[in-house]
Amino acid sequence: MTVLTGTDRATRANDAEPVTRRQINWGRVAAWTALVVLLIVTIFPFYWMLRTSLSNNRSLAAEAGSFLPADFTLGAFRRVLGLATTQEALAEGGSGASVNFWLYLRNSIIVATVVTVGQVFFCAMAAYSFARLRWPGRDRVFFVFLTALMVPPIFTTLPNFILIRDLGLLNTFAGIVLPTLLMTPFAIFFLRQFFLGLSREIEEAAMIDGAGHVRIFFRLIIPMSSAPITTLAILTYINAWNDYMWPLLVGQDESVRVLTVALGVFRSQTPQGSPDWAGLMAATLIAALPIVVLFAVLGRRVVNSIGFSAGK
Amino acid sequence: MSADTVSGKIASGRAAGQRGRYGDLRIALAFLIPSATGFVVFYLWPTLRGFYLSLTDSTLLGEASFIGFDNFERLANDPLFWNSLRVTMLYVVINIGVQTVVALGMAVLLHRLTTSVAIRGLVLLPYLVANVIVALVWFWVLDYQLGIVNQLIDWLGLGRIPFFGSENWAIPTIALINVWRHMGYTALLIFAGLQMIPKYVYEASAIDGASEWRTFWSVTLPLLRPIMALVLVLTVIGSFQIFDTVAVTTSGGPVNATRVIYFYIFELAFERFDFGYAAAMSVVLFLILGGVAIAQLKMLRAGESDLS
């Protein structure tokens, strides 16, 4: 860089920008425009969800092109949350049928929480075994576990459905959570990568102090890996929350129906001619809310975890 | 890093020596029991059973009997199966083609313009929302009568488009909806790859007077090849398994235009209870995905030489 002479070239080198000032500006404007367009495309459906959910369903047709809520009302949210009377709901174009939103929300929370706690804990144990313990055949067993990643989910879904049915677990929480409660190959792989990177010295020091593996696992490995464990927990929670096909198959019953399945049912029950779009959008918005909140709180970690899955 | 690994190996070698031939076998097995149970009961056993089911006429209800390869013969002569393969391929090509290009552009823009984690978070948002929600929102946005997109098209004086109702539009529409859902995620994967390209490469390119465009084609893209290969490995197989969006929006219609293979298997198994036949079809899907995976891994290895 010291070889360069003249302010123009020096500036260029410092900015690592290869073209002249004038062109940089135009190029930058074009680049920013492209990025802003992409961001608008990303965000717009969410805005539209909000706008529709705050509209009066009866007025949507008349003001279909308006970017503000048509005849602003919280009626759709009241309908979804079961706060509106049948008359109120019918007046705003709802079906008047009762929606058990709180029940579905509770079911989703139960399923996602149980799956997350179980899967992360049991997979951490397995990952510890694969990463930090020495035993014959270890890498071969790990490889066999990993090959399960190759099996398309639908392939195991059919026999698993029969299994869950034969166990008499259809329409129970156990039936919904069991297949992912104990392990997924990805979770073991994810944690093993981190455990491999931990230094041996601390572990050996603990051993010299007389700590066994159980103690090392709980007192050393888990606290040292709180960041990747949290990341995995968030990813697992999101996946469990968003899952559709499996709970659709084994959890049709009202008492264990989760939000995604309920939304599907809601959609198929709305009349083809004039669906309650405002109500539907209010429901999707509330169903998406927990993930959005989780993301707002822990977003940086999730974003960075994407980098991990590509980088390693 | 390498020194650490070496000392780790020496240390663990010593530890293993002290603990004898079986090392930590007992404690290792104890730690493995829950996940090994999960693996055997919900992955290994169903996989074997799936292969067996494909050779039976199981209907979910009564006793099933072994019928050999009859299901596969029937499959070869099932026009709906071939149609579902064609539709799935069409979906994968549109979805992956558009998604890769858009995500690459998005990643480069993010990389060159901003370091904001907030913006990176924003592009990830669609990926975090359930497929069902994504499908419902776009079903509304693209509604023929009241959807805002058709309002705009109408306002521009063009003819309204029956996005979900037309045989020609349905699959591209569903493919693009899932591009929307995944483009931010894919962009962040590529973005991570971009960050691994050392700064001095760009500086050298700048000193040589290369334009931004030239730098992208001659420097960025070649160095990104391994990460692009990895991204394709991650996205293509997932793309074959499109189900939720179809199930919520078109249910395979109009006619059979969106009856993708995953949805067809689901229908056969759980609506027509043709379980053995559905299992046979999922065996074929398994083989196809295995083939795709092997081809992609080869590609990935071919790409590795560029990164060093």
Automatic annotation (TrEMBL), chain A:
GO terms for cellular component: plasma membrane. SUPFAM superfamilies: MetI-like. It comes from the Bacteria. GO terms for biological process: transmembrane transport. The chain crosses the membrane at residues 29-50, 109-130, 142-164, 176-195, 216-238, 277-298. Keywords: Cell membrane, Membrane, Transmembrane, Transmembrane helix, Transport. Residues 105-298 form the ABC transmembrane type-1 domain. Pfam families: BPD_transp_1. It is a multi-pass membrane protein. The keyword Glycoprotein does not apply. It is found in: Cell membrane. Its main location: membrane. Belongs to the binding-protein-dependent transport system permease family. This is ABC transporter permease subunit.
From TrEMBL, chain B:
It is a multi-pass membrane protein. One of its GO terms (cellular component) is plasma membrane. GO terms for biological process: transmembrane transport. InterPro entries: ABC_transporter_permease, MetI-like, MetI-like_sf. The keyword Cell membrane applies. Keywords: Cell membrane, Membrane, Transmembrane, Transmembrane helix, Transport. Its main location: membrane. Pfam families: BPD_transp_1. It is found in: Cell membrane. The lineage of its organism: Bacteria, Bacillati, Actinomycetota, Actinomycetes, Jiangellales. This is ABC transporter permease subunit. The chain crosses the membrane at residues 27-45, 89-110, 122-141, 223-243, 275-295. CDD domains: TM_PBP2. Residues 85-296 form the ABC transmembrane type-1 domain. The keyword Transmembrane helix applies. Belongs to the binding-protein-dependent transport system permease family.
